[in-house]
Specification:
CATH topology of the largest domain: Clc chloride channel
Keywords: Membrane, Transmembrane, Transmembrane helix
Number of helices: 18
Distance between the termini: 43 Å
Strand content: under 5%
Number of domains: 2
CATH superfamily of the largest domain: Clc chloride channel
Membrane topology: Multi-pass membrane protein
Protein name: Chloride channel protein
Largest sheet: none
CATH architecture of the largest domain: Orthogonal Bundle
Pfam families: Voltage_CLC
Number of strands: 0
CATH class of the largest domain: Mainly Alpha
Helix content: 55-70%
Subcellular location: Membrane
Order of helices and strands: HHHHHHHHHHHHHHHHHH
Radius of gyration: 21 Å
């Protein structure tokens, strides 16, 4: 057997298809990629937490100038360092460029997203983490001479490390990295399953070790106890309501995108206006500020009037779509979970005898599946994030939200064929 130093020194020899050590060495690199992805994700998360605590101390009326200035800084970063792209570009590169991502976009993506998220934008860290850890996979693939499906698999494995580090679910994170690609012939990516699982699992352990996050659920929902066949009927109805919220989200996003596309000049004019808008909304409704990771527990544990929850759902939707359309950076998955939780809380107010956790989790799944087109991985992620042990009705709601969602995907490259 070749010693480790020869494995690292002679990639062309080891990766020859006739070489019996190819699989074991690739396995080693998938694990190492996950470790590096976990290290970066943990460092990113700890810096994000520190800055978020600082910005959250500047609340009340100070929210407006703080977020306006943050928007200006986000725009200047992008203007000076270049356009960092979005998740649609990542998907396009995975599907049509063999998994090639541009590492040169990482500085702009990292800095602009750190500012956007910590200052209070309604977008989360999944997009920057996935893009940057996916580019780590590119670097690995190029250094060891991979091509074709092996190259693409290494990129997807890097993406899985980023998803898992944020969500704390190796299985859900790996599947999300594959499902969000939304290829009509997604079976073509079956070779990336094991690489994604290996990378995501190693990233998960490293992230836990560095952040001391623990294995407990992220959001403390009272446990849902399965009922009878009636739960499945409820799940179908909740999926339809989640799809309706997905349609609202889609419409507000297209409206905001149309508005901001007509603002002339450099991008910092758009991001500054976006910051001003977000600041005004957050000043009046503080729960719309930030991406919802910590605020979601407040929704679970708190008591709110139905009128407040209805207003929160609408203005949070405006805040998320403004964040994305105005050029602020970040992802929309956790913000969509927050929207679904608010909708479930609102609906349970009309049905006080029903299980509130069931309503909230079903709508979290349905809203996210309606927008991101990821019903399977969304269900698995929520099982981990909420401590849910019986998720079949939630899967029904997730699939219902998916099939009733707008035909045109929000992430444009999900429906693109070449």
């Amino acid at each position: 057997m070749l010693p480790l130093r020869d494995l690292l020194r002679s990639p062309a020899l080891v990766l020859s298809r006739k070489n019996p050590f190819m699989l074991s060495r690739l396995t080693f690199f998938y694990v190492v990629l996950g470790v590096i992805g976990g290290l970066f994700s943990a460092a990113f998360w700890m810096l994000l937490e520190y800055l978020t605590r600082f910005f959250s101390s500047l609340s009340g009326v100070y929210t407006v100038p703080v977020m306006t200035l943050a928007g200006l800084l986000v725009g200047f970063v992008i203007h000076l360092l270049g356009e960092p792209g979005e998740i649609s570009l990542v998907i396009d590169n995975i599907r049509f460029r063999g998994g090639k991502l541009e590492p040169g976009q990482n500085p702009s993506m990292a800095l602009s997203s750190i500012l956007s998220i910590s200052a209070g934008g309604s977008a989360g860290p999944e997009a920057p983490l996935v893009q940057i850890t996916g580019s780590f996979g590119n670097w690995f693939a190029e250094k060891i001479g991979l091509t074709g499906e092996e190259y693409r698999s290494m990129t997807i494995a890097g993406m899985a490390a980023g998803f898992t580090s944020l969500f704390g679910s190796p299985l859900g994170g790996a599947l999300f990295a594959l499902e969000i690609l939304q290829h009509r012939h997604v079976v073509e990516y079956y070779k990336a399953l094991l690489p994604a699982f290996l990378s995501s699992t190693s990233a998960f352990f490293v992230f836990l070790w560095m952040t001391h996050a623990g294995l407990q659920p992220t959001w403390q929902f009272p446990q849902y106890v399965p009922g009878d066949i009636q739960d499945f009927l409820y799940a179908l109805g909740l999926g339809a309501i989640g799809a309706a919220l997905g349609w609202l989200f889609h419409g507000l996003f297209l409206t905001n995108r149309w508005i901001y596309a007509r603002i002339p000049g450099p991008i910092y004019w758009k991001t500054t206006l976006g910051g001003l808008t977000l600041g005004l909304i957050a000043w009046q409704i503080p729960l719309t500020r930030f991406f919802g990771h910590d605020q979601l527990n407040q929704i679970v544990e708190g008591r709110f009037t139905l009128l407040f929850l209805a207003a929160l759902i609408f203005w949070k939707t405006v805040a998320i779509t403004t964040t994305v359309a105005s050029g602020w950076r970040g992802g929309i998955i956790i913000p969509l979970f927050f929207l679904g939780a608010c909708a479930g809380k609102l609906l349970s107010g009309f049905f006080p005898s029903e299980n509130e956790s069931f309503f909230m989790i079903c709508l979290m799944a349905a809203v996210n599946s309606s927008v991101t087109k990821t019903p399977i991985s969304t269900t698995i992620l929520l099982a981990e994030l909420t401590g849910l042990y019986s998720f079949t009705p939630v899967l029904i709601a997730s699939l219902s939200g998916y099939f009733l969602s707008p035909k045109e995907p929000l992430i444009s490259t999900q429906g693109k064929e070449r």
